[in-house]
Amino acid sequence: MPLSSEASPNLSLKAMELPENLEPDNPLWRFALTFWQLSTAQETCLALQNEGWSVTRILCAGWLALNGSAYTGIEDATVTEWRDRVTGSLRTIRTSVPKAQASYKALRTNLASLELESERIELALAWRTLTVLNPESSNMQEREELIRHNLAAAAPVSGMTMITRPLLSTLSDALITFHQGDTQP
């Protein structure tokens, strides 16, 4: 499995083939659905996305932290390629459709549904990688420290900025107080 922290423009179309045993309904997906119900989490993740962050990477980092594992920021090239080619393309199309005109509402709704399904596949690919790589438990003593560390590892190449630092603090607080329920691996 090729790993990368950035998408490689030279990846073949073969990298886009999805594994037969992909599990879209997995603990990471259930965590994402539950965590997304918090308005603070949703607003903060979307604000970070507007700053170039990947919500999938953020969710992976948070889920691993809540399960006592460190996030390295390294992901399978298939995850990155899916995000760039499919999820990102759908998001670009959806956001280019005018919001103000009611005649486009059905189109925007359908595109949003497709984007969500694409994100579900992206998280399934990420979860598969995370379970294959089997991240070891962190030696960091405090849960808060692990959450902050993992979120920093989810940063894009541009890193953290003055805009993203307070957003990460808000997201860290949301994760610290989050009750996991059945999102365990």
What's this, in brief?
The chain has 185 residues and is an all-alpha fold.
Describe the structure.
The chain has 185 residues and is mainly alpha-helical. It has 7 helices and 2 strands, in the order βαααβαααα. Strands 1-2 form a two-stranded antiparallel ribbon. Helix 2 packs antiparallel against helix 7 (164-176), helix 3 runs antiparallel to helix 6 and helix 4 runs antiparallel to helix 5 (105-133). The radius of gyration is 16 Å and the shape is globular.
Largest sheet: 2 strands, antiparallel
Mean pLDDT: 85
What integer value in Å does the Rg equal? 16 Å
N-to-C order of helices and strands: EHHHEHHHH
End-to-end Cα distance: 21 Å
Low-confidence stretches: 1-13
H/I helix tally: 7
Strand order of the largest sheet: 1-2
Class per helix and strand makeup:
mainly alpha
Helix content: 55-70%
Strand content: under 5%
Number of strands: 2
* Shape category: globular
List the helices and strands and how they pair.
Blueprint (H helix, E strand, L loop, with lengths): L2 E2 L22 H10 L2 H12 L4 H12 L8 E2 H20 L8 H29 L9 H11 L10 H13 L9
Antiparallel strand pairs: 1-2
Task: Please give a handful of descriptors for the protein shown.
single chain; 185 residues; mainly alpha; two-stranded antiparallel ribbon; 7 helices; globular; disordered N terminus
